[in-house]
Design goal:
Elements lengths: L14 H12 L6 H25 L5 H11 L6 E2 L1 H8 L3 H13 L3 E5 L7 E5 L1 H22 L4 H18 L2
Antiparallel strand pairs: 1-3, 2-3
Helix pairs in contact: 2-6, 3-6
Length: 173
């Protein structure tokens, strides 16, 4: 266990414990066990998102723009993808993707060009400036993730990741 947690977390009440306690008093006929899991996941998502947004703001990026840059960065050697490929990776509408690409292109972080193999197709490519930004942003992002997950030991992180994966596999297509 991480040395920062000398007292057992079971003895400390968090916001979800307080909510569940109040619900149990108000509705003792209902089972709130799932709230202890889902409520904590939702609450963690809030704090994680807040941290990610703070970190990305240093690079003048929002999460959607970072997702596009990161998707391109993961595809060497050309660091390029079609809008359809990008859309499937970042799971947004084509209109939302077009807006993200427009913003990134206006900042010189990506370029759009006609695809060699398809005159109607477009290829989005990471520029040198975009590569530099995403390299630093990813490094920062991973450090923030490590800090946030640092409350758990390596073994606990692996267990938690496996449990979250199990839950996600039941809801993902």
């Amino acid at each position: 266990m991480n040395d920062n947690h000398t007292q057992s977390t079971d003895a400390i009440m968090d916001q979800i414990d307080r909510i569940v306690t109040l619900w149990q008093r108000a509705r003792p006929d209902l089972n709130f066990d799932s709230t202890e899991v889902i409520g904590r996941v939702v609450r963690l998502e809030y704090f994680i998102t807040r941290r990610v947004l703070q970190d990305l703001a240093r690079f003048d990026l929002n999460v959607g723009e970072f997702d596009v840059l990161a998707a391109l960065r993961r595809h060497p050697p050309g660091f390029q993808l079609s809008p359809n490929q990008l859309q499937s990776m970042v799971l947004i509408s084509s209109g939302a993707l077009t807006n993200r690409i427009n913003r990134l292109e206006s900042r010189g972080l990506v370029t759009r060009a006609q695809a060699d193999h398809d005159r109607r197709g477009v290829i989005v490519t990471l520029t040198d400036a975009g590569f530099s930004v995403v390299e630093e942003a990813v490094k920062n992002h991973l450090a923030a993730e490590a800090e946030l997950a640092g409350a758990l030991s390596d073994e606990e992180q692996q267990q938690f990741a496996a449990l979250l994966k199990k839950m996600l596999l039941t809801v993902e297509d």
